[in-house]
Design goal:
With 381 residues, this protein is of the alpha/beta class. It folds into two domains: 256 residues, Aminopeptidase (3-Layer(aba) Sandwich); 114 residues, 2-Layer Sandwich (Alpha-Beta Plaits), CATH 3.30.70. It is built from nine helices and 16 strands. A hairpin with a 3-residue loop joins strand 1 and strand 2. It starts with 7 loop residues before the first helix and ends with a helix.
Length: 381
């Protein structure tokens, strides 16, 4: 161990190993196995595996009464082809760690090393490695696992690297921190026909065109005053067949808002719009919600803990002026206990998240471990 009570070289090696072997949401068995092997080899943690599917937790228990403090990292990668020219680039075609979850896991493993060298004196530290964050399903599955009741936290923390902010700076916000998000799937069904005589079919084209035009207006239609956004993300019309006038279509949109109640209003407006345009064209319609993320609410008490920890470790703290436009599955944990997600600046000119050439900066591992360690020291010593 170095003077910081964690082995930076081993964490960088782990991070790059995980980067080269990414796995999609719900399929993170190899990732979880690699993290579990590292924890058993490098720490004194009790490891609980297969939480909510592929999740795992490193637990540091004490004999003295005190709170259970949870720190969370995410396991999953993205369905994007990596283009970064690094030696440890993804070995999996079309899948890559382009959101920095490999770095978040390395930071949490560094905290496990730190707590092995400086164990808590009271309560319990739970280091949770959560699957399926990108699809918004992992946290709910973790919470539903009966074993989660044994490690249910009194307070929870998570970090996320943030390009566009000074490297190593702690980016904080009270109240709404990240947006609610929900996918709306609209399936339109008419009747196909011969392309030479399309009048004998029932075409979904007019309804699909109306949806493409009006979905972006859903926040206005729903009367939302604050931030809200409706973005068409996918469309499909029939199949590639030049002899056939298509009889079915699919339109998908992502809806976002800062408030959960606004999300309900936008989603209902989207459903009403789809039913109306389908009825006008004599079509059947099926509606589906996917990847539902509630708004992430940071609790004042937890934010104060983060600010104190940042000051203790000499890290700059930058207040985010607005909630993040993206969504975070950690929101489900702040619904069951006080908690906060904060950003860790990745550099003002660093490549943006989800870009094909993004790579997590190894230089963030040390400040990431340090602020988590300060939180553990403040709350469990």
């Amino acid at each position: 161990m170095g003077k910081n009570n964690f082995d930076l070289d081993s964490l960088i090696q782990l991070r790059r190993h995980l980067h080269s072997r990414p796995e999609l949401s719900g399929l993170e068995s190899g990732t979880a196995r690699a993290v579990g092997d590292f924890l058993r080899a490098h720490t004194h943690a009790e490891v609980i595996e297969n939480l909510g599917g592929e999740g795992l937790a490193a637990v540091f228990e004490t004999a003295s009464p005190g709170p259970t403090i949870m720190f969370r990292a995410d396991l999953d990668a993205l369905p994007i082809q990596e283009t970064a020219a690094v030696a440890y680039r993804s070995r999996v075609e079309g899948v890559a760690h382009l959101c920095g979850h490999d770095g978040h896991m390395a930071i949490l493993c560094g905290l496990a090393q730190y707590l092995s060298a400086r164990p808590p004196r009271k309560g319990r530290a739970v280091l949770l490695f959560q699957p399926a964050e990108e699809t918004g399903s992992g946290a709910a599955r973790i919470i539903a696992d009966r074993r989660f009741g044994m490690i249910r936290p009194d307070m929870a923390f998570a970090l996320h690297n943030l390009p566009g902010y000074p490297a190593g700076a702690v980016v904080w916000r009270r109240g709404v921190c990240a947006s609610a998000s929900r996918g709306l799937v609209v399936r339109l069904e008419g009747r196909s026909a011969q392309a030479g005589d399309p009048r004998k079919g029932i075409s979904p084209v007019p309804a699909m065109a109306a949806l493409l035009e009006r979905i972006p207006c859903l926040p206005e239609i729903a009367g939302i005053k604050g931030f809200a956004l409706a973005t068409v993300v996918h469309v499909r019309l029939g199949e590639v067949a030049f002899g056939t006038a298509p009889g079915e279509a699919v339109v998908m949109a992502t809806l976002r808002s800062h408030l959960d109640e606004d999300m309900e209003r936008i989603f209902r407006a989207g459903e009403d719009l789809a039913r109306d345009v389908a009825a006008a064209s004599g079509l059947k319609v099926e509606l589906e919600a996917r990847e539902d993320f509630p708004a992430l609410i940071n609790h004042d008490q937890a934010v104060e803990c983060v600010l104190t920890a940042a000051a203790t470790r000499g890290l700059a703290a930058v207040e985010a002026g607005q909630p993040m436009p993206w969504s975070e599955d950690f929101a489900r944990f702040t619904r069951i206990c006080p908690g906060a997600l904060f950003g860790l600046g990745a550099g003002e000119s660093h490549v943006s998240l989800h870009n094909p050439d993004y790579d997590f900066p190894d230089a963030l591992i040390t400040p990431g471990v340090n602020i988590f360690a300060a939180l553990a020291d403040d709350l469990l010593v």
